[in-house]
Amino acid sequence: MGGGAKTVYLETMGCQMNVLDSELVLGQLRALGYEPTPKMTTADVVLINTCSVRDHAEQKVLSRLGALKKPKQKKPEMVIGVIGCMAERDPDGIFDKMPHVDLVCGPGELNKVPALIDEVRGRRTRAIALAQSLSRKSTPLQRALEFDSVEALDLARTPGPDQNVLQSYIRVQRGCDKFCTFCVVPFTRGPERSRPAAQIVAEAHMLADRGAREITLLGQTVNSYVQQENGRTVRFAELLERVGAVSGIERLRFVTSYPGDFTDDILYAMRDIPQVCEYLHIPAQSGSDPVLKRMRRQYSVSQYVELIDHARQIVPGIAIASDFIVGFCGETEEDHQRTMELIERCRFKNIFVFKYSPRPGTVADKRDADDVPEQVKRRRNLELLKLQERISQPANQALVGSTVEVLIEGFSKAALKAQEAEQSRGEEVGWRRSDQLVGRTRSDQIVVFSGEQKHIGALADVRIVDATALTLHGELIRMRDFAPASRAPRDRSLPILGAA
Ligand code: SF4
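A: This is the predicted complex of the input protein with iron/sulfur cluster.
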């Protein structure tokens, strides 16, 4: 590449799948000589990896793109790209509203990003790659056998030497066939396709060799993973066993599970495979059967409750998290009360609550009126969160005095802020013992405690001394091991980690 290394700024919005996609895109560009930069307005290439799940997320993308108008005027050779779900959903809308955008690329075509950038540079034209041609005709099993060109992106994964892989994602599945009536994912990410198990295991080995200790397997409905291998069917429980057996992987997680497809063999795998963490993220979306039916969720409230009870019977100490949508079309006060009752009943570790916003092209948008007023959505949102706080606070308090195993992820937000302030004052940052570290328990609890930089990446025992509804505070009791010196601490200033 002539004229020195080109710089790339990559900002990620949305889910873990996007975080992984960004890592892989950045990996491709690094291999071609691009250098990541945290400065958006002066970068040679700016990529925004977008989310379409809610209108709010798309508005945020438009505002980021709006902020690039002036920098692009100053530096017309800057290449601005919109990648991910919003690019797939509304390419024309992006170009209409933001004419300074040069390229759009859907999530199924991300292996083409370097070629698209070259196309823009070489021909000074817009470049587009969308996967709208993906076939839904075949069954998930048949599709699993088809060659998937986007697989190339995962296969080419080569983390750079300075890249923190301590906690890594691996994609096991793409797309979704469920077509919940509120959701754009089946349109933006295409049909459900599982990756070959051998490739997933090879990727786990590669990451473990580079220092990964925790792997999270990603899929839109991860528990419905299915693949044919040498004439036999591999399902998700077997995949857990095979990835858990990779030397060096000490923790194995998976998201997101779909309640309708959750089978007992996965619960037994969670109980019996030491590496699989006792944590399950399994969105309920509503506690009312009529709402679930309009959402086309393929389970009832009682089936969901039964699954949660069953999971608790089989997997000792399991922590369960859920998602809820408030204000879905036609949601009454009574429906909302049923959701409150479900939360009360299930005693989740935490919940994620979203206010419904219609997404163009979905069944709900075409069929149902978005008839719950915004202030009612806001109130219901708050009510669910307050109820969850009332559940989480005493549950976390009950942990005070106990000792938990944490994987130390890095400095706490407060410590990072203090370090930034010191740096901006021109002071040398001293890595003092008082620097706050943050770690995560196997059940996905965040623990803040004092430690040293060299502890980052290690497993430790921490005694819990205080707790809020969201965070545990502890004191370091003993290190279980030390992180190898080569394991770099997480650099939170890298744009790839700036997921919104
Ligand atoms: S299961 Fe439903 S909510 Fe989840 S990605 Fe698929 S369509 Fe969307």
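Confidence is low (pLDDT under 50) at residues 484-500. The pocket of iron/sulfur cluster is lined by residues 176, 178-180, 183, 185-186, 220-221, 258 (CB under 6 Å).
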